[in-house]
Structure formats: C-alpha cells, structure tokens
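Minutes, project check-in
Item: structure for the 136-residue chain
Input as provided by the requester:
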Amino acid sequence: MKYDLEELNARSSGTLMENLGIHYTSASEGRVEAVMPVNNRTCRPFGALHGGATLALAETVAGLGSMLLCEPDQMSVGMQVSGNHVSPAYEGDTVRAEAVIVHKGRTSHVWDVNVYTVDNRLVSSVRVLNCIIKKK
C-alpha cells in the first residue's frame, strides 16, 4: 500500500522535521524514504553534515515506517538508534535516507536505514529499534 506523501509531509509542520528540512519522498509498508538538505541547520561548523542530524533523519524514516505498520490503537516510540558514519556530506548537498524493515515483531520493529548523497555515496548506516505500545 502506498501512502499520501502530501498528507504525511504536512504533518511535519512545526516539528523537528520541518526545522531540519526533512521531506518524505516514498512511503509503503516496510519501506520509507526521505531527503534532507545539508545546510546551516544540519551542518557542523565548517560545512560538514552533523551526525546528529543524520541520526534524526534515520529515526524519522524508521519512525514513520513503524507508525504505518501499527494497528489503530498502537503507536511507535524510538528505543535505540545506532549509526556508523562512513563518509561526509557537505553544505549544498542533499542526503537521502532509505529505511527497510528487517524485523516486524508484536512489540518491536527493527529498521536498517542507509543515508546517501545525491551521487549515491553512502554517508551513514543506521540501525533503529522502535517499541510498539498501546495509545493512551
């Protein structure tokens, strides 16, 4: 099933996603993609992409992926994010995150998220663990 990207992106208004410029580009069950600009909001001093912004991007796509898999009375919360940053991205670039579910359990989801530059160079490889809980 495909999801309405316009609606999903509208939900980011006023959130960290909006502040970082994260924009969903694809969403289906078990796979989510988004892009983020490398700019003054996402860089460290001297123009390289901040690892924390990269992890926020990864947790964002994995979090949406889990929410799309949840039942109506459930929600997803992040439990652990672990990333390996393998090459830099620089100011003026755009990075793309691809999240793929590797485990869909009753109470947890595990996602592999790879972050790439526009020329498909791997920037980071991230593992995200989400906990599935009942809504209050």
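Outcome recorded: The helical segments are 5-10, 16-20, 51-69.
No further action items on this chain.
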